Amino acid sequence: MSLDRVTMDERVPRDFETLRATILDRRESLPKRIAQIAAYALDNPDDIAFGTAASIAASAGVQPSTLIRFAQQLGFDGFTSLQQVFRERLRERNSSYDERLLALRAKAEGGAGHRAIFDGFVAAASTSLNDISRTLDEANLEEAVSLLARAETIYVLAKRRSYPVASYIAYALGKLKIRNQLIESAAGLNAEMIGFATPADAVIAISFSPYAPATIEEARTISEQGVPIVAITDSSFSPLAQFATVWFEVAEADFAGFRSLSATMALAMALTVGVGEKRRGTGRKRKA
Amino acid sequence: MSLDRVTMDERVPRDFETLRATILDRRESLPKRIAQIAAYALDNPDDIAFGTAASIAASAGVQPSTLIRFAQQLGFDGFTSLQQVFRERLRERNSSYDERLLALRAKAEGGAGHRAIFDGFVAAASTSLNDISRTLDEANLEEAVSLLARAETIYVLAKRRSYPVASYIAYALGKLKIRNQLIESAAGLNAEMIGFATPADAVIAISFSPYAPATIEEARTISEQGVPIVAITDSSFSPLAQFATVWFEVAEADFAGFRSLSATMALAMALTVGVGEKRRGTGRKRKA
DNA sequence: TATGGATTGGAATTATTATTTCATAATTGC
DNA sequence: GCAATTATGAAATAATAATTCCAATCCATA
Fold this sequence. Notes:
The structure is a homodimer of 288-residue chains. The first copy, chain A, is built from 14 helices and seven strands. Chain A has 288 residues and is an alpha/beta fold.
C-alpha cells in the first residue's frame, strides 16, 4: 500500500454519506471478506453503531480482524473511529427530525398569528403519524383485514370527532365496491340499521375519550348479536376495547383542544384498502 | 436495598418512555447526585446511548459509580443494561424525516402484506403535511380567517372525498360555538339551505379534482348571492378558484388511488380555530 | 451535638472489547 | 506452475471500560 496510498487518500470520510459513497465506489476492488463486511455495514448501519467488533463480525460472518482491516482500508485507524461515523449519523438523524418538530411546536406556542395555529396542527399530525408508525401492531392489522374481508356488509360506526374518519371509510369502501353501511346519528334509525347486522357481517367502530355514549351502546348491541368488531380507540381502558374482536390503540396528539385525525385516517385507509386488496385476491397496489 | 425492593419492584423499564416516566415519578425522592445524573440522562439521552460510563459521568459532573448506582436504583443490574434502553430508543426512533419517508415508501412499494399499505398511507400523509407546511401562504391564511370571523353563519360545502373534512370543520365550529351550516347532499335540501345565505355570511368550500359537480354548482350559486367564499382546492385551474374570495392550493399526495387528507385537515383546523381565536378577541391558544 | 444510616468520591479490581500478531490459505503476475 | 503478494482465520495481547469496594462525608434524628 505504498506511500501513495497513505499520502494520497488520507481524506477519511467524516460523515456517513461520504463514507457510503466511498464504499460504493470501491466496492468492486475490495477483497471478498472485506466486501462482505462492507455490504453488511451499508445494510445494517444501526448494528455497526451499537454492536461490538466481535458481535458485528459474527453477524456478518467474518472475523473481528477483518472488520478492523475494513476500517483501516477506508483510512480509519481502527474499528472504533469507523464506528463513530455510524454513531454520529444516528445522532444527527434524530436531532434533525426532532428539531423540525420542536421548531414547529415552538412557533406554534410562542408565535403569534394564525400561522402559529396552523403549525401547531401540522406538528400534532406529524407527531401522531410518527407514533402510530412506530407502535402499530402488524399482526393486529392482518387480523383486522382478514376479519373485514370476510364480512358480507361492513358497518361503520362513529360519532362526533371520529365521524369524519367513518365517512371517509364509507366513501373509500364505496369506491372499492365493498358493501358497507355508515351508521349516522342523524335520522335516528340506527337501532333498525344495527338490527340487520349478522355474524356474517363486521363492524369498524371508532371512538375516543370522551367516548360518545351512543357509539358504545351501539357497539354493545351489535356485539351481542355476534357481529365481530374492529375497534379503533385510544386506550385499553376504552369501553370499545371490551366489545372488540380486534382493536387498535391510536394515540393522537392534539393542539388547541382538537386532536389530530391523521393517524386514525392512515389506519382507516390501510384497513379499507387492505380489505379491497384481499377481496380482489390478486393484489398489487399502485403508488402515488 | 433489602429483599423487599428486589422482589417487589423488579419491573425494570424496558422501553424509554416507561423509563422516562419512572424517573420523573421518583425524581423527588432521589438523592442529590442521583437526581443530577437522572436529569442529565433525560436531557441528553444521546450521550447516554453513546458515551462510556466514565465520559457520561464526567459530563454530568458525577462519579462513574454514581451512574451505576443510578442504574441499579431503577432496577437495572448495571450501567450497561440501562444504556441498552437508550440505544434501543435511537434504533426505533430512527431516521431523519426524509430518510424515514424514503424507508416508508420503499417498504410500501416493495413490501408485501398490509403493513406495506399502511406505510404507504403514512408516507402520503407525511409528504402532504411537509408540502403544505412549506407552501402555505400566510397572508392568505390571515385573510381567510378575517373573512370567516366576520361571518354570521359559516356554511361548509364539500362532497365525496372532501366531505370528511367538512364534517370535522362543522364539528369543530360547533364545539367553538360558532354558528355554521353543513351542506350535505343527503336530504336534497341544499338549494334551500343555500338560499338563506347572505353577504353577511361566508362559505368554506372544499373540492379536489375531479370536482364534484354539485359542489361547483352550489359554490357558483352562493357566490352569485354575494356570499364570500374561502376555497380549498388543488390547482389554480380549479373551477372553485374562480368563485373564491380567498383560496388555498393544497397538494395532497396519494397512495393506492386514495389521496391523503392530512394537509387539508390541518389547514381546515387552523382556519376553524383561527376564527375561534379571532372571535374571542383575546387569544392565547392552549397547547396539547 | 452525638449516632446511625444513607450517600458519595476515588481508587482497585474485574470484565469486556479492540487490536495485533502470526501462521496458513488464496490469488496474482510472470 | 511457481514465487511473491495479498487476504484470511484464530488466538494472544493490549486497551478500555464497567463494576466493586471502602473510607470519607453528609444528613436526619434523638
